[in-house]
Here is the input.
Amino acid sequence: MSKREDIKQRLQTGLVIGDGAMGTQIQQVAPKLLCPEELLFSQPEAVEQIHRNYVEAGAELITTNTFGGSGHKLKLAGMSEHSAVEVNRIAAQIARKAAGDDALVLGDIGPLGELLEPLGEITEADAFNFFKDQASGLVEGGADIIIIETCIDLNEMRVTAEAVKSVCDLTLIVSMTFDKVVDGYRNMMGNAPQQAAQLALDAGADIVGCNCGVDISGHTDIVKMLREVATDGPLMCQPNAGLPELIGGKMVYKQTPESMAKQATQLLDAGATIIGGCCGTTPEYIRLLCEALNASAK
Ligand SMILES: [Zn+2]
Here is the structure.
């Protein structure tokens, strides 16, 4: 069996290691871009190298550099000379090349960054088309799985899932972001993890999960809540490297790779099966995470 087939099978039954942050890695290579997606054109080999660094660190899923790859966000960033289909196709091709047989490619879709009508100005039909183009490009470029991540608005999540489903039948992961509030955890629109998980499953998600937002102990709580709804099968969790601190006008994530790896075994115990990192994590975090989780899962 090929490594890729093995990961696909294990995704249903056991532990799979995700990758870490893309944005912070890109900032080190090219600090002055219009948006991270610009690097796909200015230095595609640098994007490929970041993916390879994650694969070498033990990541079995690598995420395309398309978090802001909707036509809406590309236009706002000043990248409208490239169509969203083209940007996403190229990003998926680069990730596919770096992954080879050693990892699966997650075609990444992030939020539009603005609310849909009636709370905001983007119509549902426009949002659908933005996400449809993005998903089409990711599929054309060879993504193995589609991930809708950092969801904070379930209405936008539902539209995104519908758009993805309209162009492909790839496995769909919906990963949501919650903050800690007085009486538990809520997304930006006030939904609890259990309610959000149910709506994601109803919208067609094959796998639900959580990323960003809170620290690992918060994610441990959220994973347990998601498990109340997504009771069996895979469940994803990708925390940041701790809570951010504002230093010199920049968000800095200061949890060490060693500390994060040690704490991450809690996520496994809580029921997460696909574990990687979000903001502030690097290949070194993933390398230690992979070692600690594999030792703990045995
Ligand atoms: Zn994050």
